[in-house]
Amino acid sequence: MARYVAWRLAQSALVLWAAFTVAFAALYLLPSDPVSIMAAGGGEANAVSDEQIADLQRVHGLDRPLWEQYLDRLGNALTGDFGLSVQTGDPVTEVIAEALPGTLQLAGAALVLAVAGGAGLALLATWTRARWLRQVLLSLPALGVSAPTFWVGLLLVQLVSFRWGLLPAFGQEDWRALVLPAVTLALPTGAVLAQIFARSLRTALVEPYADTARAKGASRARVHFGHAAPNAAVPPLTVTAVLLGNVLSGSVVVETVFSRSGLGRTTAAAVDAQDIPLVLGIVAFGAAVYVVANLLVDLAHPLLDPRVTVGGPAVAA
Amino acid sequence: MSGRAVRAIAPALAGTGGARARRALAFWARRPGLVASVLLIATVLTAAVAPGLFTSQDPLTGVPADRLLAPSADHLFGTDQLGRDLFTRTVHGAAESLRATALAVGLGLVVGSAFGLVAGAFGGLVDDALMRVADVLLSIPALLLSLTVVTALGFGTVNVAIAVGVTSVASFARIMRAEVIRVRDVGYVEAAYASGVRRPTVLLRHVLPNASGPVLVFAAVEFGTVLLAVSALSFLGYGAQPPEPEWGALVSDGRDYLATAWWLTTLPGLTIAATVLAANRVARALEAEETQDREPLP
Questions:
Q1: What is the pLDDT of residue B58?
Q2: Fewest 10 Å CB contacts: which of A83, A270, B19, B144?
Q3: Residue A147: exposed, middle, or buried by beta-carbon count in 10 A (0-12, 13-18, 19+)?
Q4: Residues A115-142: pLDDT tens digits?
Q5: Of A20, A43, A78, which one is at a domain's C-terminal end?
Q6: Per residue in A171-184, pLDDT tens?
Q7: What is the DSSP letter of A88?
Q8: A215 to chain B, minimum CA–CA distance in Å?
Q9: pLDDT per position as a tens digit, B195-227
Q10: Inter-chain touch A287–B148, beta carbons under 8 Å
């Protein structure tokens, strides 16, 4: 097991390094001249003098060969230093750390709603004996994944806040202002969860072990919630990392719609200003979230499902 | 793809075989949602190619006297703050949105399939290397990867399409690779090699056509997701620039009038949602046909 963990850790580190490299390559190789993009990013293209450009180049180390910049950036990134934001001149790490709490709050609330809503819908849809209810419930997730997040957010603001005056649309202090953005962010993720969980529940309910439980006299509820549900929860768990990535991505749109400050808003502003160091830092952060979540799920997988044995090179399970 | 839907409709169109035509009719009659979806997609495609069929008004110039009118018979979707007809702008926006979506899906399909074909056909180190690259692309959350590309390339519809297309390359590559591995050792491929056909020819003429079904179905599945991603990036302001109408941008334009003119955000957004829903429904039907048609290989 220890060797497996070590092997997975090394693999994760490798993926992270590669993700950093891909993002670096995209950001520093694609445009012919990152400096003029950065200089122009702040305002009008021609408002920057040649000296200022040379200055910018020196500050951001862009006057040196690309491979040197890459090694530098990579070395610094390993110690948590992603350079300076072009917009503010503050360290990228600090900018991200400052924006993070707002997004964690939003993403946390959204995840709770998504899991509760998605799992609840799937359980109810497979539990009910009313055909029409089952069909209605099973067709809801398709709507959830088809509606653009930004549109759902604006609709909620229009109806719930402006028309009915039930909840505030904007603001960060009041917990009630968190409800609408969290619901908006939860919707697509909850819908995907519901689809996966409902499918695996339906499979689990006709497995031999469910029949065995029934034959031994277990009640319908016992079979459904005690036997089938825990086993059916494994497939949704394996996509945790993708769903976390979706929530992180979704926060860019949701925070823009609801004018909340957080990592999503910071990301949008960084792209607007073509703040290359900040974008690189945020992408690396996003990849880290994905990789760590995947690692945790992989390590937890054998504990949840005894049939799964740890893989990897020459490891005895 | 030799889907049942395709086979069912073909004889009906040709007008042969009464029984088969009846079966085709029954197939569609049992699926009213699918019929509505196909019709909607056809309408949207027509709007993209020939917007003049739906509206004769100009999407870019407005009538100042008609500012912010609510939807009515004259203006189905109402008018915006410059007195432009929103229905006209939505119809004209279809071209921009669908062009970007098609470009993005096409990019993912072509580049991803090429990678998958090479990886599956050559195996070994090439396969390992290419699939690790795919893993890495999948490890960056899709929107962040798109935003990286937008930051590097700059704003605009084409750049947004490229940015979104890049995010689906890895998935296309994985599916194509799996299919190529499935067919690469089959009798007719071995026969082709044995009769002296060169590898590139075998790959293009024998492997690719037999491996492409699931990949094309996945392209249909991706269409809705990609349209959503393209719209989101336009909504954020990275796609089509004003006054050009584009679906995501139209919703964004209406944000300042949320309290007073609900139609400005609601109706273009509804158009996107309906199109994505219909595209997903059609894709699901194709997918079902594909899995059902999958015969065991000889």
A1: 84
A2: B19
A3: buried
A4: 999 999 999 999 999 999 999 999 899 9
A5: A78
A6: 777 788 899 999 99
A7: T
A8: 33
A9: 888 888 888 888 888 888 899 999 999 999 999
A10: no
- A266 assigned to some structural domain: yes
Contact A249, A82 (CB under 8 A): no
Q: Where do the structural domains in chain B lie, given as residue ranges?
A: 1-30, 96-293
Residue A22 belongs to a domain: yes
- CB contact (8 A) between residue A31 and residue B152: yes
Q: Chain A contacts of B228, Cβ < 8 Å?
A: 146, 148
Structure ipTM:
0.86
Report the amino acid identity of residue B286: L
Four-way CATH pick for B96-293: 1.10.287.3510, 1.10.3720.10, 1.10.3470.10, 3.30.70.2740: 1.10.3720.10
Residue A58's CB: how many other CB atoms inside 10 A? 11
The domain that holds A186 is classified in CATH as 1.10.3720.10
* Contact list, B252 vs chain A (CB under 8 Å): 150
